[in-house]
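Possible race condition, two jobs.
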Amino acid sequence: MNVTELVKISIVLLLVATGVALLTRRLRIPYVAGLVLAGLAITELLPRRIGLNDSLILNLFLPILVFEAAINTDISRLRSTIKPIALLAGPGVVISSGVTAILLKLVLGLNWTAALLAGVILAITDTVSMIAVFKEVSVPPRLSTIVEGESLFNDGVALVLFSLILKVNAVGSLTILDGFQELFVVILGGTLVGLILGYLSTGLFVRSDEPLSTILLTMAVALGAFQAGEFFHVSGVVAVVVAGLMVGTNGLSGGVSASTRLTLLSFWESLGFGVNSFIFLLIGIEVDLVTFWKTLPAVLLAILAYQIGRLLSVYPLLAMVGWFDRPIPWRWQHVLFLGNIKGSLSMALALSIPATFMGREQLIAIVFGTVLLSLLGQGVSLPWLVKRLNLSMLSPFFQEVEQLQAQLITGKAAQDELDSLLKSGVLPKAVYEEMRSAYQVRIAGAEKTLREFYNRRPEEYESTSEDPSGGLRRRSKLDAIRRRLLEAEKGALDEAMRKRILSEEIVHGRIQTIDEQLLQLEDD
């Protein structure tokens, strides 16, 4: 493929991703599922067929996505949920992979190596899809942290197991003790690589403290940690996770200015969004519908197999958490069980199986079909399921508050429309004043009640028996308002500097202060 064709295809994909983003927001369906469907639809419209490249995903896209998730992970929240995360990402992956492999061996007649590879590939959960669901539906912070943490470490453990199975297939034999020893060394080695690179980069962050150079440095750390891990034959994914956690916790916590931190986090958020958009479009493009229909029975059996494996790993292991940590509610366990959506990493691992491996094409077809149905089935139904489980139930008190907010918003919108009708001459002034005063009565009543709500002392509010999480919601609403006002202030300063009303020095000083206030809201 020459450069011109690559540019044309990239333009098409960007336009499609933009259209999907607008359409899915209007139709209220998951963005990820929309991208996959769009990929299926545009396959014949592209100048030439393109598809997923396993090397590109593993060496470029995967480190970017893992690092972006790691630097945004709150280490204190991760520490408080490390026990359930460790159980799900460690023994959970092994149990799920083993059960799935046994079932695939018995039902589909795969050889043991192929069944084990499929079990590991189908044990991987897609972080992006789960986080997208949580953005649509409010869930408790602890549940969100468990899901994100499991997905981060789940990828690393699954990749290590995948490499170990291929090594056993190449060598011919490996004892169970040797296997566990190698697993331990690979994970520990990846952790050490990540710690070293994270520590070294943290010092450079503090010395540079300049947004653009910091962005380049984090890119080097993300990609370099993965390559360093692969070079030393340890887990590159674990190295990226550890390096990202160190950069996010030590490098960005207090060592750099607020402006640098905000610029860096915005860059990685945008980069992660762009990479994911391309990946899920390519998943749709890569799936051959003819092959999919031929392998549909095997795909459905594979889905049933990995769901049984997930069930036997999630519920028993999380039942054990109550022995040494806060128990995980049943409704949370349902989300963790049904939220094991498959994604691009599963497809990349399937493509990376050596060409000489017997049964490779069958495995690829099963994995691709499984990923497609998982994204379209679980990806679309999961938001509905989370809503039905009422994980963040709204108390009657807060329902009343939101009713008042709706009354305030609609009343002011109606008044604005009345003003427009009066100004255009459509509405006589006498009718205007009568209708506007009626709306004003509704607005005044709502404003009075809401003022009392926002002026209550936090400690008084949090102790209300009506809603034990009320203080958190109150702060969340106020923080959202404050964040919007601070962003408006920044916009006004940028506009003033552009029009030469204020000097660059004054504007940058004020923006630095505003950025610090924005970061304070993020940290709270």
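Job #2 (started ~2 s after job #1):
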Amino acid sequence: MRKLIINSKIKLSVALLTFASLAVSCSDFLDTPPEDVFTDDNFWTSENNVKTYSWLNYNTFNGYGNNAGTTADFYFHATATGLIDDNLAMNVFTNFPTATNATNANWNEYYTLIRRCNLMLERVPNVPMDQVKKNHYIGVAKFFRANTYFRLAQQFGDVPYTDKYLAQNDPNVYKPASSRAEVMDNVIKDLEEAIPMLLNVDDSNITVNKYTAYALLSKVCLTEGTYRKYNLGQNGNAYLQKAKDASLAVMNNNSYKLNADWKALYNSLELLGNTEVILTKRYIKGVLGNGIQAYTNTSTVQNGLTKFAAESYVTTNGLPIKQAGNAQYLGDATIANTFANRDPRFAKAFSNADYAYSDKPFNGLTSITGYVIQLYNNPAATGTEVTTIGQNQIDAPIFTLSEVYLNYAEACAELGTITNNDLNLSINKVRTRAGIAILTTDGTNASANGVQIDDPQRTSALEQLGGIVSPIIYEIRRERRIEFMSWTSMRKEDLIRWKKGDYLDTNANPDVILGARIVSLIGGNTKTKVNAQGYVIPYASRCNKIVCIA
């Protein structure tokens, strides 16, 4: 029954788009509209209308994309280097323009949503409905306005800010940009005002509630605190404390619990009611689909895991593979050795049965780097629900308890106050679920199973470019990378706030443009090229001595 109800909601949302476009774009010059058409003047009359109008805002969450589209938060997304991020290499080499575009689709979409929220904030106070529900929908509008300005600031920096519903001829439509700092402070203000207004509605994680806002506040404040610290050289502690407090508010809600199976976050046909997922994007047959499984389970060459990312997976004892004396690491001469004794999430996300490349497909699949992604596979999905782009039905997580746990741990570490109790409240729950040793700390260093972690990568020349961090911060960042390996939008945001764009520089970091080690290809006359050590060179025809040139 629930699925049918949500189905109806989505269809109503689509039907209401007609009104939304009128309210957002044309209301200023409508004179005498037909009596059977909603307008800004006759729409705001009931709680049901307000609720339906608010559903339009959820289209802003990308999830796995809409139907055949690849505008998504997972797997897709390209950077100016031709990489997805430092975790995934694109299946083809792509040259990107170096000149700034005159327009941007995200800019238009985001400001349309902001205008919609501003209209809602002006109209809802006058709607005849219960005050508690009225406050809730005001909180919903503030949540979405905050989320949208947050995304604008992340992508563009300084952007125009307005909290008013502007007529099209209002001169403030073309007002100058506000500083990024001012915009972000307004984002936080919106969320802090929204939280006491929002209800903790029992909607099985499909609409915004109080704890969704706490989760977003946790993310926003962690982003701002670390961005100011690493990019601007400022003290970001006030924001980091807010991130810690917001995370704790979610963590103290006992209705949220980690799943037993990490992979179930990414391959489930139904995340409705999942206790780890604070907000989900649902895909329903005949209403909305995606293409994530089709792109990774057909003849389309897969985007591939990079050597740089593969080597970040620790062994089950919690130690890095490059740490001296780590006997659990067996090297990478064979695929069996590569995956042996490693973090179990490695083999859940990527096949440990065989590599796949143009000369030697595996089960009909090929990958640009040799590593075959299998994270989104679900045996219960068959036929066109897997193979047809736009008809895949697995749901996408938007906010999760695991992210909140890692936000909390990072905020504590950045504040310089982290304790073993903090680790046990947060990151160690994630590591225990994964099947790797938990961390302990003295506030600066990190240990696993009583062995102090000493990864030579942490103090490498590459890390020195953006600044070396403490061992405990480095390990928390590693955990975030592994836990959300396919969450490409999150990884790019993390690299920006940490000032680690050098990870994508193929001159400074040649491992980011290499793939699996397939020693049988060394010296062979094959389409798939490898370097002298046997590591796949994804864009061999575009590369000179491993470093790619445009």
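The first strand starts at residue 88 and ends at 89.
Logs attached separately.
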